[in-house]
Amino acid sequence: MNKYDYLIVGTGLFGSLFAYKAIQAGKKVLVIDKRRHIGGNLYTEEIEGINVHKYGAHIFHTSNKTVWDFVNSIVEFNRFTNSPIANYKGKLYNLPFNMNTFYSLWGTKTPEEAKLKIEKQIKAANISNPKNLEEQAISLVGKDIYEILIKGYTEKQWGRKATDVPAFIIKRIPVRFTFDNNYFNDKYQGIPIGGYTNFIKKLLSGADVRCNIDYIQNKAELVGYADKIVYTGPIDEYFNYCFGELEYRSLRFEEEILDIPDFQGNAVVNYTEAEVPYTRIIEHKHFEFGTQKKTVISKEYSLDWKEGAEPYYPINDEKNNRLYQKYKVLSEKEKNVLFGGRLAEYKYYDMHQIVEKVLNINEF
Ligand code: FAD
What we know:
Elements: E1 4-9, H1 13-24, E2 29-32, E3 44-47, E4 50-53, E5 60-62, H2 65-74, E6 85-88, E7 91-94, H3 99-106, H4 111-125, H5 133-141, H6 143-158, E8 188-190, H7 196-203, E9 208-210, H8 219-222, E10 226-231, H9 235-238, E11 248-258, E12 268-271, E13 280-283, E14 295-304, E15 313-314, H10 318-333, E16 337-339, H11 351-359
Helix pairs in contact: 1-11, 4-5, 5-6
The chain binds flavin-adenine dinucleotide (FAD).
Residues 9-15, 32-35, 40-42, 56-60, 214-216, 232-233, 251, 312, 341-343, 349-352, 354 line the site of flavin-adenine dinucleotide.
């Protein structure tokens, strides 16, 4: 292989954006991924003409005009607005918590009525020093919203009782006293027309790309290919887990192709009761206003992570953050390696944050 300026490990959003910037600066880049496809967790696969979000629903949102203009300069984004629905024991509620939700819960018709209802419940609970997530949530929004819309969902997400989850996990619970089902407060949101894989493909055009190559397993050979390395894989794996493993929550998806045009009339429906084992159902065609004859749905299950499973959400508690800091110190000693992205920085990033970060890297 030729000598490259950069070897980029990972074709996810971080790696692909870095590749784009490097190419724009006239650099030669090789981008590798251990998966069989490009895109990292943004990867979408076309099934029955529908772009299926294979690693969970991804909605791009930002208030940063530079970020929005940049992504739209790569591919045009549509006007999708995330307005999830909650299904609790067969009854539907709008999310995020807003006047429509309160009307379904209590029949309240004005902000004043709804505020009064919530305040009354918070007062009745009389919690001044919440000891766990349950108490924290009730002290913020009262018993009804907690029990119907938060409890079961959170317990499935964390795999334990809400009374065993620390209070700090929920700092605030956004409540809106307008009839507005738009989940995000950001100025801009949407989905890349043609799917995320198309977006990533455009970012990578001009780069040499190889899938099915694991950097860790082929490190001895690969380091010689480039002057500098950009590493977006797990930081603990890079250092051979010398201090121990960082922990994650994982997910599992059950995908079904249905011979009907529409299953649930919405992209995202959360199941908030504990008895339904999955947390939500995604119907992918609605991200792009699809009119196909069939539909594809994914049931999303939240899981404990063990080696071999996909690491999805870092568990940024004290123990794991301390462990990460030890790896970070080692990473700072690695000359010519830039560690970036959610796995290398052990941090949950939304997509717009990754874009902002990479656009601001002063490398070239
Ligand atoms: P990744 O996408 O994980 O890319 C890292 C890549 O490195 C992977 O392709 C991996 O295979 C590769 N790799 C790892 N190790 C090696 C190795 N040893 N050798 C070769 N390759 C390797 N953000 C939003 O803004 N909106 C959303 O709606 C949203 N929804 C989300 C839903 C879920 C379920 C999850 C988990 C995240 C969501 N995000 C969302 C966040 C979004 O996924 C991240 O911001 C983004 O994926 C981060 O990109 P990345 O490049 O850092 O990581």
